[in-house]
Amino acid sequence: MRPWIVWATGLFAYIVAVLDRTTLGVSGLDAAQRFNASPGVLSTFVVLQVIVYAAAQVPAGLLLDRFGSRNLILAGGALMASAQFALAFTESLPTAIAARAVLGLGDALTFISVLRLVPHWFQPRQVPLVTQLTGICGQLGQVLSAIPFFAMLNALGWTPAYVSVGALGVLSMVLTAALVRNTPNGNAVEADTISVRETLRSVKTVWLRPGTRLGFFTHMGTQFSVTVFALMWGVPYLTRAQGLSAGLAGTLLTVSVVAAISAGVLIGIFTGRRPHRRSRLVLAIIGSNALIWTVVLALPGRAPLWLLVVLIVVISVGGPGSMVGFDFARTFNPSATLGTASGLVNMGGFIASLLVMQAMGLILDGFGEISSESFRVAWTVQYAIWAFAVLGILITRRKTRRLMAAERERQDEMLLEGVRTRRGN
After folding, report:
1. By CB count within 10 A, which of 35, 165, 214, 382 is most buried?
2. What would the pLDDT profile of 119-157 be if each residue is shown by its tens digit?
3. Which of 327, 229, 346, 342 is nearest to 281 (CA)?
4. How far is CA 165 from CA 48, 67, 215, 257, in A?
5. What are 279-333's pLDDT values in tens digits?
6. Does residue 63 contact residue 72 with C-beta atoms inside 8 Å?
7. Where are the alpha helices (DSSP H) in 274-304?
8. 203: which residues sit within 8 A by CB, 6+ positions away?
9. Looking at domain 199-409, does it have CATH number 3.30.450.20?
């Protein structure tokens, strides 16, 4: 029972992190009035947050290897709660932007720290499923921002709503301090954890492991499409290009969360039972994403509602699909550098998301308007990322398989030598 309590406490911290991450998305109009900011300036909040999140992944991984999950979850919670309290009371645009940057830093510390708890507290056969559950259940934070936070914002106003979210972060810190331990043996980081200097030197070594790069390209190819859709361009696309109401567009985003949770359970069971088929599953997810976007973008006019639902369901599978990348990192890296490896993997999808968001913005600006035709061209930038990620997966998968074959051959030789030695004696 204790492993589930530790995991649930860490999961709660991650749910709060996702809530913090998405509050500005549902309070955009209020933020524009409060800070007297244009839509272009407001988009800076999202872009800056993603930049900080992605840039902090490797440092967060290094800190995780050094100080352990509990300390980093507490630090991440403190940063995010402070940022939300600052947003609650400030009316200064520069202060608000700085607060979102701090929030992105705290967010970066949280997810990989919660993931690292899983292999320490659960049996190996349970790890893939619990890893999937961590990723998909964390998205409940998006539901919290879309429903109770949004309702509180409308009923009580900006400051009470953001203070409440900050207070929830403080609660998660209290629970983490009371209930979370790095391992069943206590809070101490493993004895084989290397020094700071050696850890810094090991980043190159971790990246050069084919399994780490396989996880990076897996995360890159599967995660970015749904992230770009949910964080920035999905609602404008559905309302301006496809003619849906804002309410219906919000409902479709809720469908995205449900689809991700459902797919995550199935993916977790599949990868746990068939670990040697993980890369095939990833390629199938990327292929299905590219195919459904091709169908939608090829239509001369607006897509029927049922096809938009299919689009959102299919790209939402990419969220839990990206979690397979962390499974690759866990499989092919020792425990002492698992945090660094997870940070490197997590960069893949967010770097891709940032590039696509920026490229789409430039294309839409080039057209001079947000329309069906401008979005049709803008969404095509995804194909470059998919092609790059698939190429990376195929190359690193081949190298990983060669490495595994060589390791099995070496073990067989050692076993045979041991048999010969015993016979000689």
Report:
1. 214
2. 889 888 888 888 878 887 887 887 888 778 888 988 899
3. 327
4. 21, 27, 33, 20
5. 899 999 999 999 999 999 999 889 999 999 999 999 999 988 998 998 888 888 8
6. yes
7. 278-298
8. 58, 62, 340, 344
9. no
